[in-house]
Amino acid sequence: MEENSNKNAIIASTQRDLIAGEVSKDLTKRMLLPEKISKAHEAGILHFHDADYFLQPIFNCCLINISDMLDNGTVMNGKMIESPKSFQVACTVMTQIIASVASSQYGGQSVDIKHLGKYLRKSREKFRKQVEELNENGSLSEEMIEELVDQRLQAELSSGVQTIQYQINTLMTTNGQSPFVTLFLNLEKDDEYIEENAMIIEEILKQRYKGIKNEKGVYVTPAFPKLDYVLD
User: Fold this and answer.
1) In whole angstroms, what is the distance from residue 122 CA to residue 86 CA?
2) What is the per-residue pLDDT across 72-90, written as a single tens digit (0 to 9) for each?
3) Quick one: which of 31, 43, 166, 196 could link to 117 by a disulfide (CB 3.0–4.6 Å)?
4) Which residues pair with 181 in a beta bridge?
5) d(CA 145, CA 149)
6) In whole angstroms, what is the distance from residue 228 CA to residue 182 CA?
């Protein structure tokens, strides 16, 4: 019941996973591994990891190709998910992809958030167009237009990052565990969206410092996603 801190063994989906894991460990030991490996494992000479999943052709951790799935669209549950038109939608789709991948493997998922910068710029361009359409009579100065666009963009930025944080911490995969996610906070000097990505990283760090409320309404630091700040 307590073998994995990432799993709540009280809920039904986790119990099904644990029961299946016992079957996998038994078959791995008796039929799938060479006898000398099984005996070496039992003797403590070596440790054969993840025998509870070895029965199935699924794999451990991965780096999700989030760029391809956001830029070109993807398919989940037989439904087409087209390329997002805004930052908020990109954040939602990203967390759906994370949950889907996490349900088909038994390890963690790593995601580089530099691929979100493009969609924050799309949101900026959308807000700019909206404000300019409202300013047909020219009553707003260029400075006022920029201020209004920045206000709307900051609200969308905050909402999108909050979506990432809360979705990852409240989603449960089909094997009964929270997605074990690592976000790479990665800035590359030649990235055309470096300004947007810096804004996203800053907002992620701000919200992590604030934390999220636990069941008693007290702000706590969430275990996920892990944040890896990349320095070249």
Assistant:
1) 6
2) 999 998 999 999 999 999 9
3) 196
4) 109
5) 6
6) 7
Q: How far apart are CA 212 and CA 99, in angstroms?
A: 20
C-alpha distances in Å from residue 107, one per residue of 58, 68, 190, 230, 232: 10, 21, 32, 21, 26
Asked if 119 contacts 90 with a C-beta cutoff of 8 angstroms, the reply is yes
The amino acid present at 59, given as its one-letter code, is F
Where do we find the tokens 């079957």? 23
Q: Is 26 left (phi over 0), alpha (psi -120 to 50) or beta?
A: alpha
Backbone angles phi, psi at 36, to 5 degrees: -65, -30
pLDDT tens per residue, the chain (232 residues)?
Answer: 777 767 778 888 888 888 999 999 999 999 999 999 999 999 999 999 999 999 988 888 999 999 999 999 999 989 999 999 999 999 999 999 999 898 888 888 999 999 999 999 999 999 999 999 988 888 899 999 999 999 999 999 999 999 999 999 888 777 777 788 999 999 999 999 999 999 999 999 999 999 999 999 999 998 889 999 988 7
